[in-house]
Design brief:
The structure is a homopentamer of 263-residue chains. Chain A folds into 2 domains: 139 residues, Apc35880, domain 1 (Alpha-Beta Plaits, 2-Layer Sandwich), CATH 3.30.70.1030; 113 residues, Alpha-Beta Plaits. Chain A has 11 helices and 9 strands. The first copy, chain A, is α+β, with helices and mostly antiparallel strands. The first copy, chain A, starts with a helix and ends with a helix. In chain A, strands 1, 2, 3, 4, 5, 6, 7, 8 and 9 form a 9-stranded antiparallel β-sheet that branches. The longest helix of chain A is centred in the N-terminal third of the chain and has 18 residues. In chain A, helix 1 runs parallel beside helix 5, helix 1 runs antiparallel to helix 11 and helix 5 packs antiparallel against helix 11. Chains in contact: A-B, A-E, B-C, C-D, D-E. At the A-E interface, helix 4, strand 5 and helix 10 of A face helix 6, strand 4 and helix 8 of E.
Chain lengths: 263, 263, 263, 263, 263
């Protein structure tokens, strides 16, 4: 099971490869912070044949994975997550940000069409759109100020994705009532802002969802408390679907994913 | 992974083939615009063996696909969509318009029975019927006039299919109440008429649905806003099923599909 | 893909075979018209290996199918339907009428145990019992008379099967209330009696259903209008399950099925 | 498809084997009649490879099945049912009665671990406990007397298993209200006592069920009428799940099962 | 089917192996008793190939299983359960306690990546967190004292896992109302404290659950009565999901699991 020295060397070389293209990468910061960007969560399972191949073959295929990801990073922002061992839904998760869903489709077509992709089974694809905050402009100034306190720096190894579908009743409420409930919701989440980083995607029409909520944390217990707090506010019963699936995994670089899969 | 020059040539020849038969094609315009036409949405996944074949074999099979589609275009109107990379439900979607479902069945039998069809797994088949507008005749004149403004010309690369099942309560309402709600629904959709093209199919009895709604757009953000607007009108809670699945993909010509699958 | 002349000949011979046994067939008319008969709907998918066999092998296996069906026709009435291309649930549907479910089981055991049966995957088996009309005796004379007008003769190529489960509320109503609603239901269906043929099976206890409704028509648009009319009567909200699956296909003789599958 | 004379002989010898151990069998009567016994319903499907083996191989594997069943009959009571051809959920059903679930587990481990077991896929395992009648002691004397009339002797070839989950509302009712409803339920079932044999298992906590109801009959029409009568009493709406799956099959001896599977 | 003497010897040697590393094991007692620990329930099915291998190959692979488990026991607490024969959801269940979910992930990655892991299909992964008792501090003193009576010593061969999702209504209740209901719930469970051992995990956010309840007992009838008592208290209707799946199996040591799988 342990890689030979030669193989370890092969993995290291692979991990060092195509570093150059990263320089020409898409304006990742913009894609990850601006409104009007499409975020896609694509979860895949590795097929039974993957593990049955010898390591040299797997490394050859991971080289293809690396090439495909690096090549598309010029246009889209790609994040990787290891779900295997924590989630029963899939093994790998890609989060892709793009200004056009066609670019995301092209990346996933190349990923699935490549040598590594032959071993991938699609478990879930969910799309959302980043938008300017809906309710925040009407929040009290103190709350607005509190929201500006961002999460503490440092690595946040865990990522969780919770898709949400609101009930028809929710959309039937007038904007004021929804705003009041979202204010309560936001206030209840404040204590966790420091340790749990969040990002919201609007999905209506793009999938059978209304929202995709994305979280990163190093303290899963705080994340648990945050969701528990969310379940206790008045807005919560208006969720017709909350999770199903909840995807939980660890944030990994492309090279870390390759190392795990090469072993 | 890159096709050799020979293969590229083979694809080009394939793409150019059987252009002649297109001349004798079914009266596509009539099938796509008149009432009393059956619209079938047939979504397929490619099996795991497809990608494992070499390119020459895949091109041979795609030639068969091309032949089957061109042959049936004499009787039925066939549109193709690439779902792979955007949808976790299927890889390919065929939309077929026919005056008799038997003709659609014959096309799909030939498609599935051919060399390419051996690699297709049926993901979903949904049928609907085009009918004259139900509620429009009773709409105010201004609304009728507004509805005549059609979507802007130009390519609309994205297509979305949302199946709908109404609740028993909806059908229990009298025609006036339903008409009033459909008027509100229609008015709320007006702002998106220019950028989102729509088509409605009546499915009751032909499938476990009441309607299939079909959309084309180049601006997915507008489409998202349209569906969000639809969720806020009084008719929305009468949907027992909305989506599940929502199919999202890109509009492709037969030749474009062949190019993607040949690579 | 086209069968050679030899193969065409083989299919023709096969189609002509065992015609003799049809003479000794079960009293099909009685089984199809009397109460106290069990009707079974057994839907099967063909496995991926079926299409991968050469035609001679397929013809050999279809000969076995023909033999099994003809042999059992002495005891049970067997109808065949081609679902492939119209339904995503299955490829073939058998409707079997028998005075004892054991005889149906014996037929399906022989079908599945034979060379052709190795390629069949069971998609659904539903059982129902024919009974004398429940509510009709209390209907007004005019309605009774109207019900005696049978559907027009001539081929009805389409068949649709809709399983139904009533809610607990339905069975909790007293017989009078149910009868009044069934009268409204029946009156609403009258306009479609000429073009849509129907048959009702009572399933309670034999499956997770209360009824199986079976339809034949040459005018699918009329069938669509019939079901739409049924959705608007007061009895409809008492259906907890209506369809799921709705099976739609074309009525075929055994020989027609063999021809389609041999090609 | 027909077994050769040699094979028929082999089946007969197999069927005659290990008769001795039946003498030392578990006290079957006690296990089938007393309270405090665990009843397990284990349904299996045969895999696609089963039918593809030649008959000699299948007979060798059925010999192993016979050995495993006979060996465990010293400790547990085992009944077999053929679901294939009548149920789309599974091919074979084992009903096992034991004083400890560990003994049932050991039997099923040996069954699945043996040569025949390699072809079995578990479709469902449900457990229940026999208990003294809950509500009967408080029933009127006449009803108690009526309940003592047992079903008519003679073969009852059909068996049906219906799992039941009560709603939370049911358990929230006080004992008197539940008893009154169970009395109505019991009175409504009386007319079918002669032709439909019943047995009740309590499942709460052992599975996602509250009860497993087991029926044997030679008159399926009576069984249908019985369940229809049950759907009309006040207790019925308190069932959150009734069936799903309803398992229907024929009662078979081990030797009959072997004969069917050997052919 | 019976292992040869050599193989029995091989199993015994295997079972005796790596006993040393157990000495350096994680502080199992602390992990199993303290709050702030993550408990993961990972259920796996063995694939169809497992049984088809000869015994020597299976023993070689079980040696790898043993190595992986013993190696990780230095960091995480690992318990094993045999579900096969009692549950239709999976064959094996691992319960892992760790202070960080990353350590659990690493164990499961090594398990799945090893020679034995190639035969495992993930059936379910559920996570929960141990926390200090929520409602107990406000309970009356007598109840607090009663709760200190622990279950009787001695082996408890059966283990049951019931995941729970509360309704939105539950979380909308104020703490007092929830506390009163949990007091009734706790009082109703007291009679079973001696024979049924329990442990609670808080899952909100970590999975599509709110709680995972874990039980051990030697008296399944008492466990059945306990759950029945729980269904009758006022808190029960606030469970939106209770079970689904209910996992039931037997507690086994690693060596016992190896013996069962080696045979």
């Amino acid at each position: 099971m342990r890689p030979s020295i030669f193989m370890r060397f092969a993995v290291l070389v692979l991990v060092g490869l195509v570093l150059v293209s990263a320089v020409e990468a898409a304006d990742r910061d913009k894609l990850l912070s601006e409104p009007g960007v499409y975020g896609t969560f694509a979860a895949f399972s590795l097929d039974a044949d993957w593990e049955k191949q010898d390591q040299a073959m797997r490394i050859a295929q991971l080289t293809v994975l690396k090439g495909v990801v690096e090549q598309h990073r010029e246009k889209v922002a790609i994040d990787l997550y290891l779900l295997r061992g924590l989630s029963d839904h899939a093994d790998l998760l890609f989060r892709i940000h793009a200004t056009e869903l066609r670019e995301t489709q092209q990346f996933l077509l190349d990923l699935q069409g490549g040598l590594f992709g032959k071993h991938l089974t699609t478990a879930a694809i969910m799309h959302g759109l980043t938008k300017k905050a809906n309710y925040v402009p009407a929040f009290p100034d103190q709350l607005k100020a509190d929201l500006k306190i961002h999460s503490e720096p440092g690595p946040k190894p865990y990522a969780i994705v919770i898709p949400i579908r609101k009930s028809a009743d929710w959309w039937g409420l007038d904007q004021d009532k929804r705003a009041a409930m979202m204010q309560e919701h936001t206030e209840a989440s404040l204590p966790y802002n420091k340790t749990v980083k969040r990002k919201l995607y609007h999905s209506t029409g793009l999938d059978d969802l209304d929202f995709i909520t994305y979280f990163e944390t190093s303290k899963l217990e705080d994340f648990h408390s945050l969701i528990l707090a969310m379940e206790k506010v008045k807005e919560f019963p208006y969720n017709r679907r909350f999770g199903h699936p909840t995807l939980i995994g660890t944030v990994k670089s492309l090279d870390e994913i390759i190392e795990v899969l090469a072993q």
